[in-house]
Amino acid sequence: MNTLSWSFLDILLVIALVLLAGAALRARSLRQSIILFIAFGLVTALVWARLRAPDVALAEAAIGAGLTGALLLTALRNRPSEESRLVSNNGMRWGGRWGNVAITVSVSLVALGIGWAVLYGMNDTQSGRLAGQVGSALELSGVSNPVTAVLLNFRAYDTLLELAVLLAALLGILSLGGGRATHCTVDPIATSLRGWLVPLLILTAGYQLWVGAHAPGGAFQAGALLAAAGVVQHLAGRAHAGLPVGAVLRVLMVSGIGIFMTMGLWTFLGGRGFLAYPQRWAGELILLIELFATLAIAVTLILCYLGSEPERRRITPAGSKP
Amino acid sequence: MEVDVLVLSVALPLCGALIAVAWPRRCEVVGMLTAFAVSVAAVLTLVQVLVVGALQHEMGGWTPGLGIALRVDILSAVFLVLVGLVVLASSVYATGYFGQPREKAHFWPMWLLLLAALNALVLSSDLFNVYVTLELLGLTAVSLAALSGQRAAIDAALRYLLVGLLGSMVYLAGVALLYLGYGTLDLPAIATQIESEPIAWLALCLMTGGLLLKTALFPLHFWLPPAHANAPAPVSAVLSALVVKAGFYLVMRLWIDLFPALLTPSTGLLLGIPGAAAVLWGSWQAFKAERLKLLAAYSTVAQLGYLFLGLALLFQLAPGPTRDVLFGGIVLMALTHGFAKAGLFLAAGMVQKRSGNDQISNLGGMAQRMPVTTFTIALAGVALIGLPPSGAFLGKWQLLSSALGLGQWLWVIVVATGSMLAAAYVFRVLERAFAGSSQPDAPVAIAREEWPALLLSAIAAVLLGVGSGWLWPLLGNDI
Asked: Is the pLDDT of residue A178 over 60?
């Protein structure tokens, strides 16, 4: 396609994004709102792809649209008898119409301010300087995908703490989710899909994990795909969604941070500094960390979806790995 | 080889949390050991900073900017020690407070993650990394606040969650602007480049605004009293003493280290005026509160006000010894409040547990029934009012003398009124506590729960005041 049709597509995407966001906010029922939100997430993923950020696009599609949507729909289903409750047109319950006006005005002001500051105050020579640094240090990182290099080497400490954030969110959900029934209604479509969808998802997850070293992909995307396999299992009637139980599950939950901490303390006590991988092995070590991070992320997302740990007695022999 | 102990302040609690998740049956032992080890690491870090000066650890061995650096100076080291000691004392208390294995298995992993988040936040010198620590802190704090599972606690925690997320998003928008403008996230690197221009101003507004929401500065404090008053006692102690203080710490860091090029003497009023309002409103609400824990929560709103009021005065002073002394005074007030409020909340938790509720009108006879707890509340009260020899007395004294030195007597009236109201609400509690009950019960003594609270209050009311002669000059060197 030529430049003109690309820019036409871009304009369409931008318009669709704004319209979907508005529609999701103004939808008359929560269910509609959620479905519009999922559509919004998919369009956002396209926008990221057009902005040449395929890693973000993949993550947005898998997590932003897919799993968040599934979580929201489950939350809606678990609301007792309030499912079809209409959201009042004013949406916000805090302060009604004037509250809405205040929120709209303040958000618009901030948006205008940001736009103004960016246009007026941005220093062209400065932006992108860090990208240059990453480029020149890339060959020391052990991987050739700059995004993976940043996430798992240059700023691995951020990723470590982000895994801790995921764990904290999961622990928070588990500490509240006591009374929830774990039984699920069997969806006939999901049951027939399961046979080929689950292996396909697992395969794609493995590919994403592997390819992350030199092309867009990585632990977060792979983990999300693996989690999707678990959600499909659950929809197809497997109450434990392919998860192990008890101690194995709890170890899997922390395996991502666990491997990170092991590496970190190993290099730290070896006198190299926390998470300073030996350069020769950096690529292999990053893959190892990503492998366990993928498992931990998948288990975390599935457990968030389930809302509580699957019970021990519900094990069925057919349960495959998530 | 010299080991950078500052890394351990983050690594130890993270490891502890992992083990506590994977091994729920032993989580209490793991939690206690970790809390103890972290306190030791904090004290060692302070010693190391005193001996060799500010330290830096480059994570992954990458230069800051490309990678992330942890930095510790005397200010962050002192905060590390505050965090370590308050969490250690609250942990000892928590071993007695939580009885059910289920409660323990939920409490300890999140508690240790919260500890990791606090330490990581204090040590971070990378603006995006600070955002990640804020998220970790916010999520663990919310989950812990909802731990009792009661309706009021969950409502308050949900509001806390939404406010916290809004605060971090707004902060992150500011960080994005700074990255756009200056091409790095490393705090010292930005500080050398920053100029008074639109992008920097907007970033200052957004980052400060987001943090103030999390710090509950008046009028953004609406979420704090229900969240802090309905959480389990050890959690309330840490939320009030440390978690909101983390927001204050960041505002202080940003305004002093990152944005000084933008600030004029009057900019500080943007913090000072809400601070003054917080002192008056918070103290008044605390005076009117029906419940002991609600009183303590509103008192936090007021005490945070003093800190921001102090910052407003600080930015009007020219660099020099007067400014250094005031800075030391502000930090001393923050520390005193941290220890005193933790002690007060733990004591309030004792009262609530023994008598089923914490209505102030039901406190009659407490002085006979729970002498140690009553003494704890009295000591914490001394520190909250700002009576000598507490650290807050010296801090407030410095606040007043700076205000008078600048000829701004309105601040003096605010501080005096706030202290008067504080005296009123503390003595209201003590008056009830000493009022005899018709049938004096035998005194109860539970060392595991009483002594941590008493020690915290004693540090606030006595040790920080007496020891300030040593601490104060060190803090001044920092700015």
From this structure: no
- Partner residue facing A154 (CB), from B1, B60, B182: B60
Q: How far is A4 from chain B (nearest CA, A)?
A: 28
B425-462 residues labelled b (16+ CB within 10 A) or e (exposed): bbebbbebbeeeeeeeeeeeeeeebbbbbbbbbbbbbb
Nearest to A155 by CA among B58, B119, B189, B54: B58
Q: Do B182 and A123 touch (CB under 8 A)?
A: yes
Chain A residues with CB inside 8 Å of B198's CB?
Answer: 116-117, 120-121
Q: Which residues of A touch B65 (CB under 8 A)?
A: 130, 133
Q: pTM of the prediction?
A: 0.93
| CB-based contact B198 A120, cutoff 8 Å | yes
Measured CA distances, B88 to A315, B38, B128, B231, B264 (Å):
40, 8, 29, 18, 41
Residue ranges of the domains in chain A? 1-108, 142-322
Number of H helices, E strands in chain A: 12, 0
- Structure-token pair, residue A96: 């009604």
> In chain B, what are the helix, strand and coil shares in percent, each to the nearest 5?
80, 5, 20
Map residue B79 onto helix, strand or coil.
helix
Beta carbons within 8 Å of B345's beta carbon, 6+ residues apart: B228, B233, B236, B237, B240, B241, B293, B296
**Stretch A174-194: mean pLDDT:** 70
Chain A residue with CA closest to B5: the answer is: A268
Residue B231 to residue B249: CA distance in whole angstroms: 23
DSSP B69: E
Whether B154 has its CB under 8 Å from any CB of chain A: the answer is yes
Q: How far are the Cα atoms of A162, B3, B117, B415 from residue A273, in angstroms, in the given order? A: 20, 9, 20, 47
- Residue ranges of A 69-128 with Cβ closer than 8 A to chain B: 110, 113-114, 116-118, 120-123, 126-128
- The DSSP symbol for B290 reads S
CB-count burial class (<10 Å; 0-12, 13-18, 19+) for B183? buried
- Nearest chain B Cα distance for residue A123, angstroms: 6
Tokens of A85: 């409750």
Distance between CA B215 and CA B212 in Å, rounded? 5
CB contact under 8 A, A268 and B11: yes
Q: What is the Cα–Cα distance from B122 to B46, expressed in whole angstroms?
A: 13
For Cα atoms B141, B142, B146, give the angle at the middle one, nearest 5 degrees: 115
Asked if B100 and B40 count as a contact pair (C-beta separation under 8 A), the reply is no
Nearest Cα to B232, choosing from B340, B114, B347, B148? B148
Identity at B20, one-letter amino acid code: A
Task: Name the residue facing B116 among A122, A164, A258 (closest C-beta).
Answer: A164
The answer, yes or no, to whether ipTM is higher than 0.90 is yes
Give ∠ CA B182-B184-B189 in degrees, rounded to 5: 85
Task: Find all residues with CB under 8 Å of B101, minimum gap 6, and list them.
Answer: B24, B25
In angstroms, rounded to a whole number, what is the distance separating the alpha carbons of residues A127 and A173? 39
| pLDDT of residue A317 exceeding 70 | no
Residue pair A157/B59 in contact by the 8 Å Cβ criterion: yes
Do the Cβ atoms of B132 and A258 come within 8 Å?
A: no
d(CA A45, CA B364): 63
Give pLDDT < 50 ranges for chain B.
1, 479
Contact B143 A175 (CB under 8 A): yes
pLDDT digits (tens, 9 = 90+) for B173-223: 999 989 888 888 999 999 998 988 888 998 999 999 999 999 999 889 999
Of B18, B66, B199, the CB nearest to A134: B66
